[in-house]
């Protein structure tokens, strides 16, 4: 391809609306253009990258025995009503009506459709196991689309679904996918960590995420997940799922008898602990949440934080948020109190479900709100002054240096971009949608399912997050839009131009994906663009061509060598072989 023909417009500046480096670079280097919030045009260079990622995924999925198909992007509401998700999926599901007033949605994922396919097509255990996948655009009306391709509303996903006769089969299919995923990301030039995760709206019990680990710095916070991991035994989990052993609370003998005392203006745990001059771990914190429209009071030891996904899961919820002040007022009115946030306690609350984190069970002579503004109960004990909630679960956010549950070593934390996700679904969809097969023993049984996603467009963006420098992108070879760019320094110099053309011709004939920068531009512009676009190799034909020498640059390392044109050609041919 000739740069003079290539449809690409590089920009001098980063786009003003971009926060993370992959978004900035992909726009500036002419790969993507925004059409609407969270919706992007994939321009020719981007489309080449995406097709490469897709092909790696396709090759590895096919090699694992999975079969590709393509399901419709628009889906009828009836299927979602059958699975029960029409009412619970929330606003991310883009709903629409056709001309006959029938309800439809844009596919955010395809469990319902694939289950309907299996229900009609698979009658007997003899047809199992089977794994079906597709590569397709998905639409999720994300509340905060951001970071360019990392969190779009429309994005490309590979989604696969396995069907097995029993749990053992599912475990086997799951393991095959886990291994396949590791290979896929490796081939894309991305090191990933497979971490335990929450199963969220898709359901099921066991699930893992594939995380590209990124450093958090002030300029770049593309890693939206906190990953906790143990350097000793290898335990690793998303913060929404991570668990840990806990150091015992600091105790304080200060409050030996129950007493209500004045605690003016202590709205936060920090203020209260300072005012009372006790460690935060002597306080029982009480926070009011709204989960799917219902009020929940969540209690946790004062020095620790509630993990909202865990809390939401404890009530099988789909949406969670902290209660507003007017809602707290309403609860107080209904319960016959008048306290404001900061002084709320579980005692006497009406119309509110109460849950305690495991950390509260061991509290003794503790401090807790009693629904009176500017007052707290000190020296409280469970069963004497306040009832211990019946519902006790782990709803605590793990913190760095908490102890690993498997080996007790201190846990570390890092940021990660989730590029893939695998789930053991079990019978969640097959049961709800009555999708069954006849087993060996003649019994009708629901399929045992798994599902497996990879964000194709997110993977490409994650590769930019991992591979770039101040000059631009450094594509891993396997997913680069072109392998090599030939740059004649001066388009006025006949010898430079003819050698460059000759190299271009020979590489093209050898089926190498090669660009030639034949534009009438200054050398500086051409070299800058080559770095920005991120082509892995550059062959620069300049003045030294008089001695039959060109410059060979490796983008990843910045290494420059002076070699003959033939050596340069041969080197590229060896690389792509
Ligand atoms: P997230 O937690 O990041 O919102 P998810 O867990 O909801 O993602 P899955 O349902 O597991 O996503 O989808 C499978 C894969 O699709 C994800 O691992 C991710 O790579 C990709 N993906 C999901 N949402 C988006 C999005 N909004 N933009 C780009 N890729 C996405
Ligand atoms: Mg996921």
Give the N-to-C terminal Cα separation: 20 Å
Cofactors, ions, other ligands? adenosine-5'-triphosphate, magnesium ion
User: Globular, elongated, flat, extended or rod-shaped: what is the shape?
Assistant: globular
CATH superfamily of the largest domain, called what?
A: Bira Bifunctional Protein, Domain 2
Could you give the count of β-strands?
Answer: 31
Give the count of helical stretches.
13
Structural class: alpha+beta
Count of spatially separate domains: 3
- What ranges have pLDDT less than 50 throughout 5 or more consecutive residues? none
Structure description:
- With 577 residues, the chain is of the alpha+beta class.
- It folds into three domains: 21-223 and 415-466, Bira Bifunctional Protein, Domain 2 (BirA Bifunctional Protein, domain 2, 2-Layer Sandwich), CATH 3.30.930.10; 259-393, YbaK protein (Alpha-Beta Complex), CATH 3.90.960; 482-576, Rossmann fold, CATH 3.40.50.800.
- The chain is 26% helix and 28% strand.
- β25 and β26 (472-473) form a beta hairpin.
- α2 (44-63) runs antiparallel to α5 (167-187) and α11 packs parallel to α13.
- Bound molecules: adenosine-5'-triphosphate (ATP) and magnesium ion.
- Magnesium ion binds at residues 209, 418, 421.
Which terms would index this structure?
Rossmann fold; binds adenosine-5'-triphosphate; YbaK protein; single chain; 577 residues; BirA Bifunctional Protein, domain 2; alpha+beta; 3 domains; binds magnesium ion
């Amino acid at each position: 391809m000739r740069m003079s023909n290539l449809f690409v417009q590089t920009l001098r500046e980063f786009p003003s609306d971009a926060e993370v480096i992959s978004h900035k670079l992909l726009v500036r280097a002419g790969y993507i253009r925004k059409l609407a919030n969270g919706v992007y045009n994939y321009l020719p260079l981007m489309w080449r990258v995406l097709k490469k990622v897709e092909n790696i995924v396709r090759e590895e999925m096919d090699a694992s025995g999975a079969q590709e198909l393509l399901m419709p992007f628009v889906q009828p509401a009836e299927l979602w009503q059958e699975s029960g998700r029409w009412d619970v999926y929330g606003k991310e599901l883009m709903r629409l009506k056709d001309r006959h007033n029938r309800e439809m949605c844009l596919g955010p994922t395809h469990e319902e459709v694939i289950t309907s396919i299996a229900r009609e097509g698979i009658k007997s255990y003899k047809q199992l196991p089977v794994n079906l996948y597709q590569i397709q655009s998905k639409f999720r009306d994300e509340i905060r689309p951001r970071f360019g391709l990392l969190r779009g509303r429309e994005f490309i996903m590979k989604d696969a679904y396995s069907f097995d006769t029993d749990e053992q089969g599912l475990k086997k299919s799951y393991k095959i996918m886990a291994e396949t995923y590791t290979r896929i990301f490796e081939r894309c030039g991305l090191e990933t960590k497979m971490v335990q995760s929450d199963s969220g709206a898709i359901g099921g019990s066991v699930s893992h995420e594939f995380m590209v680990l990124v450093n958090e710095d002030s300029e770049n916070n593309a890693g939206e997940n906190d990953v906790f991991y143990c350097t000793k035994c290898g335990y690793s989990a998303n913060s929404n799922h991570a668990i840990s052993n806990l150091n015992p609370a600091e105790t304080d003998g200060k409050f030996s008898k129950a007493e209500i005392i004045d605690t003016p203006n202590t709205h936060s745990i920090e203020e209260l602990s300072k005012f009372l001059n006790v460690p935060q771990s002597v306080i029982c914190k009480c926070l009011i949440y709204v989960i799917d429209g219902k009020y929940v009071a969540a209690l946790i030891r004062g020095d620790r934080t509630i993990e909202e996904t865990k809390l939401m899961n404890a009530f099988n919820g789909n949406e969670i948020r902290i209660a507003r002040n007017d809602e707290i007022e309403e609860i107080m009115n209904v319960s016959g109190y008048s306290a404001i946030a900061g002084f709320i306690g579980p005692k006497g609350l009406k119309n509110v479900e109460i849950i305690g984190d495991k950390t509260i069970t061991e509290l003794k002579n503790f401090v807790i709100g009693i629904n009176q503004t500017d007052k707290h109960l000190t020296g409280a004990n469970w069963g004497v002054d306040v009832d211990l909630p019946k519902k006790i679960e782990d709803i605590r956010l793990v913190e760095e240096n908490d102890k690993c549950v498997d080996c007790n070593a201190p846990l570390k934390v890092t940021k990660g971009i989730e590029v893939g996700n695998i789930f053991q679904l079990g019978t969640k969809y097959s049961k709800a949608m009555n999708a069954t097969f006849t087993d060996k023993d003649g019994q009708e049984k629901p399929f045992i399912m798994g599902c497996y996603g990879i964000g194709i467009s997110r993977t490409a963006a994650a590769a930019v997050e991992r591979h770039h420098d101040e000059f631009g992108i450094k594509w891993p070879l396997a997913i680069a839009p072109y392998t090599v760019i030939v740059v004649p320094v001066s388009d006025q110099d006949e010898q430079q131009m003819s050698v460059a053309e000759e190299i271009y011709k020979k590489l093209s004939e050898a089926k190498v994906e090669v660009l030639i920068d034949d534009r009438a531009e200054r050398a500086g512009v051409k070299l800058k663009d080559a770095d920005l676009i991120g082509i892995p190799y550059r062959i620069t034909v300049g003045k030294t061509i008089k001695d039959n020498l060109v410059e060979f640059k490796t983008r990843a390392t910045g290494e420059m060598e002076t070699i003959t044109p033939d050596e340069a050609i041969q080197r590229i041919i060896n690389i792509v072989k």
